[in-house]
Amino acid sequence: MKNVPDLFILSEHAELLKKLQEWDIAYHQNDAPVVDDATYDAAKRRALEIEAQYPELAHSGASTHVGAAVSDKFKSHRHSVPMLSISDVFNEGEVADWFNKLSSKELFIELKVDGVSYAARYEKGKLVRGLTRGSGVEGEDITENLKTIPDIPQVLAGKFPDVIEIRGEVYMTRADFAALNAESDKQFANPRNAAAGSLRQLNPAITATRKLSAFAYTYGEISNRDFKTQSEYFDKLESWGFKTTRHWARHAKNMDEIQQVYNDIMLIRPDIPFDIDGLVLKVNDIATQEKMGSRANSPRWEVAYKFPAARAITTLRDITIQVGRTGVLTPVAELEPINIGGVVVQRATLHNADEIARLGARIGDKVIVQRAGDVIPQIIGVAEHAPDAVDFVFPTTCPVCGGNVVQESGMVARRCINSLGCPAQLVGELEHFVGRKRFDIDGLGVKQLENFVARGWIKTPADIFTLIQNHGDEIKRIEGFGDKSVDNLNKSIESARNVDLHRMLFAIGIPEVGEVTAKILARAFGSLDAVRNAPAWKLKTIDGIGDVMADEIVSFFADEHNAAALDKLLEQIHVRNAEAPAPVADGPLAGKKIVLTGTLSKYTRDAARDILERMGATVTGSVSAKTDIVLAGADAGSKLTKAEQLGITIWNEDEFERIVANANIN
Question: What's the Cα-to-Cα distance from 91 to each of 44, 95, 252, 255, 460, rounded to whole Å?
Fold first, then answer.
């Protein structure tokens, strides 16, 4: 009996293909990816899973898709031999599934360079055409641009075939990427984007000013072949004048050797001067390659063994201290720059002194860095201790104001107690205040706030709303400012004078009150005065407000300094009262208390919360015995653990999507 997909599967598959196409255009044509590698890979793997279950969907689906159509900005040419992609594998099991089917077990292992693919056609040893991968069938003509790259010879040396199409990767080293961003108005997100944007310039003179490099690793059309293995081909490439990744290449004949190469390259990854995102495992014997052939869009004789998208190993160069808005001193790891999931990471949190001791991390060690979604990168372990590593000594005085640092009994945090005189605490408080989902004032970043605080122009949040009135002319004379930027800042400040109650409550920095709690308070009380005057007992009757939180709210509004700053602020702004949402009495989740944790691949946190609330649920910020369901995405932490301990129902994203589909929620 034929396996027929239902409407939900058809809809999911169509939506995945639509997303993949949009992401491919952003990545290949616009050189501005909108999702990281992990998100892209997850979506593509899901599409392939559906196509494996329902083969009729594979026709013109993800399994036959390569790259993106060529841009109409460039002339296009058809590849004489299709320029296929490489199938990805992500763990030892998937590698073993591929390896065990091979008739020839000798592999040649290369670095998977994170750059832009090119094809350079040579006739009689002369470069006559250069193309991008494009759709895999047609590519964009970038001949003149390739000629500006020193690593791509315009004339081959030695003995060469009459016709050969050399294929490889154009890339930018991390050092050249940093230098380009330092001197350019346009800031590229990572070296791959910089290489793509530089290579696909309509004016080759611009490409020539960028420090692009290139490796060669395979071939397309060839008039005659006098080499028998991939290893020998690398020898040929180097004799013709190309650079290869030979220095890092390895041979392997079994799974243990493959995994050893993988582990070794992961360890030295930070010392490699350019970004890589995995290894390419190739059958070394080319006759076997030709016998095995290709699938619709990828060769059978090679796979890309991808590194974890959100983890990498790099060197801990130093540890510095940041002072936050509450005076907490947070150690920050200064790292050798490394690309993790499409973002160049140079700093990561070390949380506190106890965490440094637990990790055993010392300056100079190679450390494992993790990044998931939009979470701040963090060090999760030491990969290798350096013999000359240096212990970090936590400061006993504030590095910003010189105030005393204390560690309260039972607390891991160390705090500067100079709350009223520490500029770092004021800047942190103001940065929080003007941030997204709070007052959302563009043009007031950390650097601007530090400048204005240092000049004495901003001492409380209320001063922001008189900043242009009192100091506009002076600001225009500061380097980096001018009439237009001051005018834009003024418009942003003026638009922030009317603010929703929940944004106000989130912005003013009440301890324990985040975005979710601020919304709970706004809905429960309706007005700022009602929240301000609420006794602790009344706060504790509200779902989502615990004893500690209630006490912190009462203490915050009772503090004379806070009260005076708040009254001064209210002279400048208008707070819109909250309207309690109509309860969804007949919704599928009516009466359910749900907690969100981790990162969802297809929904932002706000979107997921909105959907749950439209189905009647109450979304809270902490897990308790009263919680009915925990929706856990990737990298869920302590909330998931607590839910498991309490025996609370746990949903993953797939279960959430099924509920949404059944409820017909857009």
Answer: 16, 6, 17, 12, 53
**SS (HEC) of 555-607:** HHHHCHHHHHHHHHHHCCCEEECCCCCCCCCCCCCCCCEEEEECECCCCCHHH
Reported pTM: 0.54
pLDDT at 581: 55
The closest alpha carbon to 283, from 261, 326, 251, 312, belongs to 251
Instruction: Decide: 377 and 349 in contact? Cβ < 8 Å.
Output: yes
* Residue 259 buriedness (CB in 10 A; 0-12 / 13-18 / 19+): middle
Active site residues: 112
- Burial per residue of 529-553, b for 16 or more beta-carbon CB atoms within 10 angstroms, e otherwise: ebbbebeeeebeebebbeeebbebb
DSSP secondary structure, 225-293, as one string: ----BHHHHHHHHHHHT---SGGG-EEESSHHHHHHHHHHHHHHGGGSSS-EEEEEEEESBHHHHHHH-
Beta bridge partners of 89: 305
Taking a C-beta distance cutoff of 8 angstroms, is the pair 309, 36 a contact? yes
Both structure tokens of 501: 């109650």
pLDDT, position 1: 46
The Cα 309–Cα 33 span in angstroms is 15
- Using pLDDT thresholds of 50, 70 and 90, give the confidence band for residue 333: very high
Which sign does the torsion angle of CA 477, 483, 484, 490 carry? Answer: positive
CB 425 within 8 A of CB 324: yes
The mean-pLDDT minimum among 113-122, 202-211, 245-254, 639-648 falls in 639-648
DSSP 596-643: EESB-SSS-HHHHHHHHHHTT-EEESS--TT--EEEE-BT--HHHHHH
Helix axes 7-24, 37-53, angle to 10 degrees: 140
Tell me the pLDDT of the chain averaged across its residues: 86
Give the residue carrying structure tokens 């907690």. 595
Residue range 369-412, pLDDT digits in tens: 987 554 578 898 898 899 999 999 999 999 988 888 888 777 78
Order of strands across the sheet that contains 250-252: 88-89, 302-306, 276-283, 107-113, 250-252
Helix, coil or strand: residue 467? helix
Sign of CA dihedral 216, 219, 220, 224: positive
Answer for the pair 643, 628: CB distance below 8 angstroms, yes or no.
no
d(CA 284, CA 262): 17
- How distant is the alpha carbon of residue 502 from its chain centre? 28
| Token pair belonging to 271 | 């010392």
Tokens representing residue 344 in the block = 């160049």
Altogether, the residues listed in the chain come to a count of 666
For residues 330 and 323, what is the distance between their CA atoms, to the nearest angstrom?
Answer: 6
Asked if 134 and 65 touch (Cβ cutoff 8 Å), the reply is no
Residue 553 parent element (H or E): helix 547-558
- Helix and strand numbers, DSSP H then E, in the chain: 24, 24
Angle at 145 between CA 139 and CA 148, to 5 degrees: 145
The Cα angle at residue 240 between residues 237 and 246, in degrees rounded to 5: 30
Three-state secondary-structure class, residue 137: coil
657, burial (CB in 10 Å: exposed 0-12, middle 13-18, buried 19+): middle
Structure tokens belonging to residue 273: 């001067």
